[in-house]
Amino acid sequence: MANINLKEVKFTEVLNDYINLFPKGAFLTTKQEDKINTMTMGWGNVGYIWGKNIIMVPVRKSRYTHQLIENSNYFTVSVPLNNQYQKELKFCGTKSGLNYDKIAELKLPLYKTELTDVPIISGNDLHFIAKIVYKQDMKLENLSQDYQNKNYPEADMHSFYYGEIIKVYQEV
Ligand SMILES: Cc1cc2nc3c(=O)[nH]c(=O)nc-3n(C[C@H](O)[C@H](O)[C@H](O)COP(=O)(O)O)c2cc1C
Hints:
Distance between the termini: 17 Å
Low-confidence stretches: none
Order of helices and strands: EHEEEEHEHHEEEHE
Mean pLDDT: 94
Bound molecules: flavin mononucleotide
CATH class: Mainly Beta
């Protein structure tokens, strides 16, 4: 277990910059029983629905992450804001947990909060702990044609996982 200090921060403190958080790449970490995996995510939303702060992560059905998150109630998102973990983001964005134990190979330091068994990856600047409250499979026919052609040429659709943001931590 990594030895780190976490300070709870108000979601609104990071709201101004949230739109730029994910396109630079973040770690979406999932766990099912004793299997822990992380993948790079570049898309996602942070917003407000059902009277809650919500983070939505889109996961294509072909991902190992899809298998794990389907069988879990929580996920975490760890965000590097200072260009750290570039090599690791590339690896976790191109290699599947089906074939690699990415966390072991990269020696990613995990840290378990008291909120869920799904760990965060320390060495990142911002961590979201999310409890899944809604999920939805995309329907290709509901998407505008130009988005279909550009993003889903093989119809490998995303499922959207909406997590209530239980806590946001800044690593200090
Ligand atoms: C910068 C970047 C952003 C990515 N964003 C997403 C994403 O938002 N959703 C997704 O399903 N895959 C995304 N991927 C692809 C997955 O990270 C990649 O397929 C990964 O190998 C899946 O790992 P897994 O099979 O262990 O879940 C992204 C890859 C990169 C490099």
